[in-house]
Specification:
2 strands; cell membrane; two-stranded antiparallel ribbon; 1% strand; Cytochrome d ubiquinol oxidase, subunit II; transmembrane helix; metal-binding; 12 helices; 334 residues
Length: 334
């Protein structure tokens, strides 16, 4: 295995971690105005992710940094071509982060309600647009021979990419509802369960629609490993819903997490060895070789990653261990 492949795998792993952790994060934010019936309940919901939401976003920063350093041409084309979409995601993340900090600085109900809806909006836009972005990478975008994106913002929207966005929105919301069944107490658990059952019933047919469109509009299913991973995505999504119906919340959460893991693996495996597909000419696609840094740069980065990645993993694991208990109404920070 050469360093180009190693760094493609590392970027994939970083996005898996980001989507898994930030997935339930977004889901909790989307459900906030609907499951919390009063201010105390909404504070409980926010506190379920309060100590970890900003740490989860470290995975995105690390993935972006790794892509920039290992595949600078990919990073340049991606950020120039997806400029508006990524700007909207960044704006949504900023609004969401500000809302977490500002919400409880004033006891006025209108003030708190306003920031609750900002958390909802920021979470919803982010969950939707990540699916649109990932499916665009696989479907292909207009890239010319100079590795430059020559389309517009509207070229990123198609029935296929919108189905991708709707799928990630529903799966992340399901993931968040299951997370709340594990982190809250009393009536909130039953309310989160009811929401998860309904969202799961919507997510399964939408995910199947995405699978059909993926078969028709991309070459993902020509790669055996990617096809198996995509089938695994559907199986774990159905399993999560069935386990939820039986009250097995912990295993259902694990299954919804594996749904996200297998979906991300399928998408990146479908791309490999490309990192962006050109729908103008397959020869103009960006790959892990024509978009990469020099071998010396990759070698230095590998040494740094071997030292830093375990430290980050240990720190985040310790954070989740410290805040592992269910959230009660006695110690609410947000």
């Amino acid at each position: 295995m050469d360093l180009n492949i190693l760094w493609f795998i590392l970027v994939t792993v970083l996005f898996i971690g980001f989507f898994f952790l930030e997935g339930f994060d977004y889901g909790v934010g989307i459900l906030l105005p609907f499951l919390g019936q009063d201010d105390t309940e909404r504070r409980v919901i926010i506190n379920s992710i309060g100590p970890v939401w900003d740490g989860n976003e470290v995975w995105l920063i690390t993935a972006g940094g790794a892509a920039f350093a290992a595949f600078p041409a990919w990073y340049a084309t991606l950020f120039s071509g997806f400029y508006m979409a990524l700007f909207l995601i960044l704006l949504a993340l900023i609004v969401r982060g500000v809302a977490f900090e500002f919400r409880s600085s004033d006891e006025n109900p209108r003030w708190r309600s306003f920031w609750d809806w900002m958390i909802f909006g920021g979470s919803l836009v982010s969950a939707l647009l990540w699916g649109v972005a990932v499916t665009n990478l696989l479907q292909g975008v207009p890239i010319d021979a100079q590795m430059e994106y020559v389309g517009s913002f509207w070229d990123l929207l198609s029935p296929y990419t919108l189905a991708g966005g709707l799928t990630t929105l529903l799966v992340f919301t399901l993931h968040g509802a299951l997370f709340l069944t594990l982190k809250t107490e009393g009536a909130m658990v039953e309310r989160a369960r009811g929401a998860a059952v309904k969202i799961g019933m919507l997510a399964i047919p939408v995910a199947l629609l995405l699978a059909v469109l993926t078969y028709l509009q991309t070459d993902l299913f020509t790669k055996t490993g990617a096809a198996i991973a995509f089938v695994g995505t559907a199986l774990f999504l159905v399993l999560a819903w069935l386990l939820l119906r039986r009250g097995r919340y912990g295993w259902s959460f694990v299954s919804s997490g594996l749904t996200i893991v297998f979906f991300t693996v399928a998408m990146f495996w479908g791309l490999f060895p490309r990192v962006m597909v050109s729908n103008l000419n397959p020869e103009w696609s960006l790959t892990i070789y024509n978009a990469s840094s020099s071998p010396y740069t990759l070698k230095i980065m590998t040494v740094v990653a071997l030292v830093m990645v375990p430290i980050v993993l240990l720190y985040q694991g310790w954070t989740y261990w410290v805040f592992r208990r269910r959230v009660s109404t006695k110690h609410l920070h947000y």
